[in-house]
Amino acid sequence: SESRNARQLRENEWRLSADLYNNIGDDSGKAAWQARVFVPQIFNKIELAKSMVKSWLLEGPKWFSLEKMPAWTPDTADVKFVEHVVRVLLDLGGFVDAYSKCLEEGFLYGTGCLKLVWEQWMERTPYMVEVPLYQDPQQMQMAQMQGMPTTQPTISSQPRPRSGLKCYHVPIWNIYPDPF
Fold it and tell me: Going by C-beta distance under 8 Å and a sequence separation of 6 or more, which residues neighbour residue 1?
C-alpha cells in the first residue's frame, strides 16, 4: 500500500534520528580499548532550535492574527473580535504545548503533525450558581429597593455539557501505520 511504501523509505532514517536524539549511540564498530562515551549533540541542537522558534513565534503579544489591519474601524472590529476568540480558544486547547511537540518532531524527523478538533464532554466539577431567595417578583423588587440580597450563592454539582477546541500532536509513527 501507499502508506507502507512511504514508511519503508523513511523508517531507517527515523529510527537513526530517534536513537541520536535519545542518546543511544552505535558503538559496535569500536575496539575494546576505545571509550563508549556518547555526546548528546542532536538533543541539544533540537532543544535550542525549538526554543528559538517558540520564542520567535509565540512570545509576542500578537502571535496570532487573521490579517493585517491598517487601523481600527467599525468594519474591522469583527476581525479583531474573532482574532481574540481564536487566540483564547488556542490557549485553552493546549496549542502551544502541542505545537512544541510538533516542532521537536519536525526538527528530528523532518515533519510534524498537529490535529485540531472540536471536542464535547460532560463536566462534572462543582460550580457556583446564584439561586433566587424569593419566588415572588414583588418580594424580590422590595428586597432590591431596601438593599437586601436577592440571590444566594449555592454550589451545584449537576453535570453540564461542554465543548471546546483541543490541539493534539500526532506522532509521525501514527501517520504512517506500521506495515508489520
Answer: 179
CA pair distance 45, 32, nearest whole angstrom = 30
Of the candidates 88, 85, 82, which has an alpha carbon nearest to the alpha carbon of residue 69?
82
pLDDT, block means (10 residues), the chain with 180 residues: 76 83 79 79 86 77 66 73 82 87 87 90 89 90 90 90 91 70
Q: How far apart are CA 68 and CA 71, in angstroms?
A: 9
d(CA 37, CA 68): 52
Q: Which pLDDT belongs to residue 120?
A: 93
pTM reported for the whole predicted model: 0.63
Q: Is 116 helix (H, G, I), strand (E, B) or coil?
A: strand
Closest CA to 103 of 53, 55, 30: 53
**What torsion, rounded to 10 degrees, do the Cα atoms 143, 148, 154, 158 define?**
30
Structural contact between residues 103 and 112, judged by C-beta atoms closer than 8 angstroms: yes
How crowded is residue 83: how many other Cβ atoms within 10 Å of its Cβ?
Answer: 17
The per-residue pLDDT for 179 is 55
